Amino acid sequence: MGMERTLVLFKPDAVQRRLVGRLLGRFEDKGLRIAAMKLIRVTPELSRQHYAEHVEKPFYSDLEEFITAGPVVALIADGPEAISVVRAMLGSTNGREAPLGTIRGDFGLSRQMNLVHGSDGPEAAAREIEIYFKPEEILGDEPTLGGWVCADDEK
Fold first, then answer.
1. Per the residue annotation, which of 33, 50, 104, 117 is the catalytic one?
2. Among this protein's residues, is 117 annotated catalytic?
3. Which CATH number fits domain 3-135: 3.10.450.710, 3.20.20.80, 3.30.70.141, 2.60.40.1120?
4. How far is CA 27 from CA 32, 75, 102, 115, in A?
5. pTM for the whole thing?
6. Lowest mean pLDDT among 72-76, 87-91, 145-149
7. pLDDT, tens only, 21-76
8. Rounded Cα–Cα distance for residues 144 and 129 (Å)
């Protein structure tokens, strides 16, 4: 177990549906720390960089059209095992199949319009964070709440 950072994107459907505050609150309620956050527009170039492994796949053009369709909130969440914690909070990619209690299970009905992206592993998280954030945009200090969220031996 260890402290991790992960990239989270509130996709255009979440922003357009005005769910950002509610979704952000769920991550904070869980005890994750928001180390960086900004509202951006994903360009086609940024989309190709982020989804490089999918660019040649048949579904990529739809993915790019969706992720560039409106503003996105990009954030870095950190905490103990943040990557797996965030992935569990998101639920299955398809909102119709995601369990109630997960973000997609509570707010989603679509496979493509699935509200939120979360990095799927440590390497992806490091790569994606570098794509969206400069080092000086990321908070490095330990919040004073840290000792009230989990025990020292869990960090």
1. 117
2. yes
3. 3.30.70.141
4. 6, 11, 11, 14
5. 0.91
6. 145-149
7. 999 999 999 999 999 999 999 999 999 999 999 999 999 999 999 999 999 999 99
8. 24
